[in-house]
Please model this.
Amino acid sequence: MSVKTGEVSGPCDSSTVKDPELSPAQRGKVVNVAYLIAALDATWMFLQFSITPYLAKKLDFDTLWFGYLQSMVGIIQLLGGPLFGRFGDLFGARAALSLACSATVVLFLLLAVTDSPAMLFIHKLPVVFMHVVPACQMVVADLSEPDKRAGALSKMGLCFGIGMIAGSTIGGKLNTRYGETFAASVGAAGSFVSLLLVLKFIPKSTKAVQSSTDGIFQVMFSIIAINFFKLQPEENGYLMAYFGIVQMVIQGGVIGRLTPRYSDMSLLLLSVGVSALTGLAQAYMQNVFHFCFIVLPMMFSLSVFNVITDSILTKSVPSSDTGTMLGLCASVQSLLRTIGPTIGGFLYVNYGVSSFGLIEFVVNVFVFVYLLQRQLKKKAE
Model:
């Protein structure tokens, strides 16, 4: 199967479907398109983040109800993650990405017509299939050599940063000047463009070659930006764009230099340790300017953790199961998004934002000690 035709019959099984005609140049082209699709998906995702919390506020959602909405999204993605990953392994990258992009189009169309609390919940149903990033990660993992996989996956975070900047800036401006309906319609059109890229450039199969610690603060950030930082849509967009710039610098200039020099376990310990210190800093944060400084180590720890865990886990399974493994990784994040918003809403109402940082600090200290003990025990053996 070649990139141009990609013809296979039936589900893609790595034991029977090979792709010997994919040259290194063709593999590079497919990987670059996967990066582009991931960047566009992040753009539409952050454009949505510039719409949903403000629309929820107009519909009289309080912090707890917004937490329930986010928990529902987590439940749906938790159920859909492993199934979607296995679907990608069986039917190939093009089918998986087509399904994910189509679901994103439907979500934005439903968001464009949302005018009631019930519709705000209903429009989230397509997220069961919205796993564009894990599908792009599967493509990159399948088409990269194991020893270069961490570096290749780190570039996915760079794409995420680009999308964060573009989506937050565009979404904030569109929402402020033209309203939620128009902004959602732009998101639907953009998602359709992503679908066209998938259909034209992604082969049916990429199986030729052999969690994330989103804290409660990250899950609840959009509502905190409104209530704690008192940000308007356009201001929130600028802040998210700043996050994107930090993400790009870290992914493009830092992680790529670290992965060839240090072991996966050393980098994993580093990310958990930095995350613990970041949580302590969050506990004493007072305003958005403090948060802008805290974002630097926060994004570093999250970026390193995501890249290293994805690299370790995809190396632990054969190429035929990388989609399933990445789907399970996505489900871990979805599990946190299931319980995080409800817990976060309760903590925010009763104990304030500082409680998020304290919890992050305590949990990561325990994780750091556990990983360090395992590492020392392994060296002793």
Summary: Residues 1-20, 208-214 have pLDDT under 50 and may be disordered. The first helix runs from residue 24 to 49.
